[in-house]
Amino acid sequence: MTDPCLRTGFEIAADIRRGVLSAVAVTQAALDRIAARDPGLNCFTTVTAERALAQARAVDAQVLSGQDPGPFAGVPFAVKNLFDIAGVVTVAGSRIHRDHEPAKADATLVARLSAAGGVLLGALNMDEYAYGFTTENAHDGPTHNPHDPARVAGGSSGGSAAAVAAGLAPITLGSDTNGSIRLPAAFCGIFGLKPTYGRLSRGGSVPFVHSFDHVGPFARSVRDLALAYDIMQGPDPRDPAQAPRAVDPTMATLADTGHTPRVAVLDGWFRAMATDGALGAVDEVASALGARERIELPEAARARAAAFCITAAEGGNLHLPDLKSRPEDFDPATRPRFLAGTLLPATLIIQAQRFRAWFHAQVMRVFERFDILIAPATPCSAPLIGQATMELGGVTMPVRPNLGLYTQPLSFIGLPIVSVPVHRSGAMPHGVQVIARPWAEADALRVAAHLESQGVVRAPVV
Amino acid sequence: MVRIVGDRMSGMTEPDDGIADYVDVMAERVGLRLRPGHREDVIVAMRALLQQGQLVMAFPLGDEVEQLPVATP
């Protein structure tokens, strides 16, 4: 039988529900693989082996007794360590939170996946407080890219992406404020979904930038993204930003509906500094979708700049008490940016908020003409761990703040986006953003599924 | 003109753009006591933020454009 670690969550759940595969066997295989591979990758900061095996035994018992174990039956999953796990300290990549009490309850999304039969394997490495694009965490060490351990996994949800790419779990959760799902998904060659702002509950997760924090899944297939996403939808009073919308299942709509989406390729800002590899990936996807039109989002550079400033201001304000009392305990990579963020002039942040309204209106006009926009997820493939600068478009610039050039303008206004992986022999993977209008996650997932069925995008275990 | 600011032992030079002074004044106003070893990095981060901020501030917005304080789609 195929190694369960190489299978998708959907396949695992189907076989467990049919009684032909044991959840305990799947869980033990995942724990064994983590023990063997993770010391070289550093994805996990906590492995919840006891809980995982107990959950797996409960699933097997349900199957044996003829009860429905749920649509996520026995599927191993793991979460970025900013999600609460009952009994575990939620560190959010920080030293400071290690002093906190263990969480009393699971985060809403952890609880929903568990209630659907999921088996939680543990918590995953990230940039401190989600403020970074590389997961080179000063407290927990860097997460290594499974495609090349000398390279970063991307961030801030680097542990989540690398764990899926390495087959340590078929599905993980992360958060995305400025690109922290899409960017590591691209660098690790897997799929990632950043839903519309307000769609999935952030209840029980450590915030970073309240006004555009999102949470979502990583997987090696579009069907797994849809499976997890559908289970996690639904209202939750723990997240005041969640929109009061009905659940919108996507699993049944992944197949082509006969409707050909109007697709455009983002030009200008979204191509100017990209490497040939990143542009090649976009062009491949565009060709497969028959997208011939190129358009520019007006003032995308300013949108990125506004996101950059609001991020620092909101993040800095959130951590102001600790910045005052124990600044030495922050990661040196985040501390100066948080500190500077607390000092930004109010007029700049108000202007950035007003610009957000203007930019949002412009982009909504674009969606009157198109259903899907595509753009690179990153300007380049994964840089080396410790690499300080890179050259893009003939300009040498620092790596850490500039990897999110193409992701920041889009999450800034809360659009739903699937990052799809493009692999070429002998090269590091690239990611392409499949961008839909607000609340149209189903459209983005359907396009991603179409590309996957054509073999244009794929996510092999490495 | 270039002047020496901050940790004089480091020998680092900073452009005289007033950002170091701004950081010092504002830090005091919000109750932050910047450690000597942290201050230079904060000034660098502030300079990067204000550089991006200039792009935002330079954009003309009509009076009718209100704030969008969360990414409400």
Please characterize this protein's 3D structure.
The complex is a heterodimer of chains A (462) and B (73). Chain A has 462 residues and is α+β, with helices and mostly antiparallel strands. Chain A is built from 16 helices and 17 strands. Chain A has an eleven-stranded mixed beta sheet with strand order 1-3-2-8-10-9-16-17-13-11-12, sandwiched between helices. In chain A, strands 4-5 form a two-stranded antiparallel ribbon. In chain A, helix 5 packs parallel to helix 6, helix 10 crosses helix 12 and helix 10 crosses helix 13. The longest helix of chain A has 24 residues. The model of chain A has no long low-confidence stretch (mean pLDDT 97). Chain B is 45% helix and 8% strand. Chain B is built from two helices and two strands; from the N terminus they run ββαα. Chain B has a two-stranded antiparallel ribbon. Chain B starts with a strand and ends in a 16-residue tail after the last helix. The chains are: A alpha+beta (462), B mainly alpha (73).
Biggest sheet features of chain B: 2 strands, antiparallel
Principal-axes shape call of chain A: globular
The number of E-state strands of chain B comes to: 2
Q: pLDDT below 50 for ≥5 consecutive residues: which ranges of chain B?
A: 1-11
With strands numbered from the N-terminus, the spatial order across the biggest sheet of chain A is: 1-3-2-8-10-9-16-17-13-11-12
- Quaternary class: heterodimer
- How many E-type strands of chain A? 17
Span between N and C termini of chain A?
A: 19 Å
Mean pLDDT of chain B: 84
The major sheet of chain A is characterized as: 11 strands, mixed
Give the CA-based shape of chain B. Answer: elongated
Compute the number of helices of chain A.
16
Structural class of chain A: alpha+beta
Percentage of residues in helical conformation of chain B: 40-55%
Q: What letter string, H or E per element, gives the SSE order of chain B?
A: EEHH
Separate helix tally of chain B: 2
Mean pLDDT of chain A: 97
Strands in their spatial order, largest beta sheet of chain B = 1-2
* Helix percentage range of chain A: 25-40%
Determine Rg of chain B (CA atoms, Å): 16 Å
